Amino acid sequence: MIGESNAITRKATLTLNISEFDVPPMQDMLIVGRKAPIGPEAVRRMAEALSPEQFTLIKMEHPKIEAVLLRSSLLQMIDEKLLMSIILEEAERMISESMVLRSELKIAMSVKREVDLL
Length: 118
Hints:
Strand content: 15-25%
Order of helices and strands: EHEEHHE
Shape: extended
Distance between the termini: 90 Å
């Protein structure tokens, strides 16, 4: 047949996203389920070994969530009670007791002031 080719071509497309390795590799927050394979104290010790004094462990009285390990600097930006209520509201929709969720949490402050001109 005219124009027919029996040649076989195989192609592969590779996409690499390379970024700097973060220590610890858990970003800003870990949410530990009540029956997770790693408990809150082990998570705290891991964070302390990798990034001393950078994380705070907050234990919970929650049906699914046992604790939240949070980058301490975030607690300097926003009230702990307010922040934890937001985290729990969002995390409880997707976590099971046996899970550990990793999360990035960025806080951006917006300030508007009005001053009298002299």
